[in-house]
Specification:
about 300 residues, alpha+beta, 11-stranded antiparallel sheet, two-stranded antiparallel ribbon, about 25% strand
């Protein structure tokens, strides 16, 4: 039994030795696979490191882009603020210009009111304009004003070199009379001596007479050619401080004779001409009914 036991142990030991010898080539064969796995792991680690670096670079670029966007937004905001400031400055300048224009208009209105109140004698022309009459008259003009009351204009004739005879408004010297029209030859002087008839009552109100523009004269010439007449004068009229729905105006037309045929037109807001009702034509006078002041063209039809 003891002998069999020893043999059994020997056999087992021999088997174990054989098994160990058989397993050594397997282990030796498995060693290259482990090296490749280690190499693959190293390469994977390097790839991961490269990916992490790429991600870091991408994050840095994104941060730079965000910073640039923020700076661009700030620049745009500054530009918008400057534009807003410029717009505000332009608005302030426009308001200042409007205020200045209003102040100028108020000053002109105040000057006109201070000079004339509800009526105005207009410019005074002494002597002879067309050299057809040789009468020289001297007039003394006094403007009286007390406190806030409207000024009173007093005109006194002091003498005449031609004998001191009475002077018609429709004869020289020309008072409140337009004697020139740009672009028009042989102008017939047209004036206005006051005494507007408003509401059937004769008043002290006067149409202030002024020279017109060449453009309006040209327009009146076209109108006259269409109706077969000749433009004799084109005038601007004003009535500071006077209000009316309609009034009768006695225009002093120098050289106009009884029997002459005249048509009077008024220019509307859109540049068209509207015929005015002529109530009477006599020596030196054309009497019309009008509804407002403005530009009037006097056209002789015969």
């Amino acid at each position: 039994m003891r002998r069999k036991g020893k043999n059994m142990k020997r056999t087992i030991a021999l088997v174990m030795a054989v098994l160990m010898m058989c397993s050594m080539p397997v282990m030796a064969a498995e060693s290259p696979s482990a090296a490749e796995a280690a190499k693959a792991a190293a390469e994977a680690a390097k790839a991961a490191s490269d990916a992490a670096k790429a991600a870091s670079d991408a994050a840095k670029r994104a941060a730079d882009a965000s910073l640039s966007a923020a700076e661009a937004a700030k620049t745009a905001g500054d530009a918008a603020k400057k534009a807003g400031d410029a717009t505000k400055s332009a608005g302030d300048a426009s308001k200042s210009a409007a205020d200045a224009a209003k102040a100028a208009a108020d000053a002109v209105k105040a000057a006109t009111s201070a000079q004339s109140g509800d009526y105005y004698a207009g410019p005074i022309y002494y002597g002879n304009v067309d050299n057809s009459v040789h009468n020289n008259y001297t007039y003394k003009i006094t403007v009286k004003s007390t406190g806030d009351k409207k000024p009173k204009v007093v005109i006194k004739k002091q003498g005449s070199s031609s004998g001191g005879t009475a002077v018609s408004v429709a004869e020289p010297p020309y008072i409140n009379t337009v004697t020139k029209a740009p672009g028009l030859d042989c102008v017939v002087p047209v004036g206005q001596g006051g005494k507007l008839v408003i509401g059937g009552c004769k008043t002290r109100a006067t149409f202030v007479m002024r020279e017109t523009t060449s453009a309006k004269v040209s327009s009146a010439k076209i109108l006259a050619a269409q109706i077969g007449g000749v433009v004799k004068n084109v005038v601007e009229t004003y009535a500071p401080g006077v209000r009316f729905g309609s009034c009768q105006v006695d225009f002093k037309v120098y050289g106009c004779k009884t029997g002459d045929l005249y048509k009077v037109y008024q220019m509307g807001a859109n540049g068209t001409w509207q015929e005015v009702k002529v109530d009477e034509i006599r020596d030196g006078h054309i009497i019309c009914t009008v509804y407002k002041t403005g530009t009037f063209a006097f056209i002789k039809m015969n």
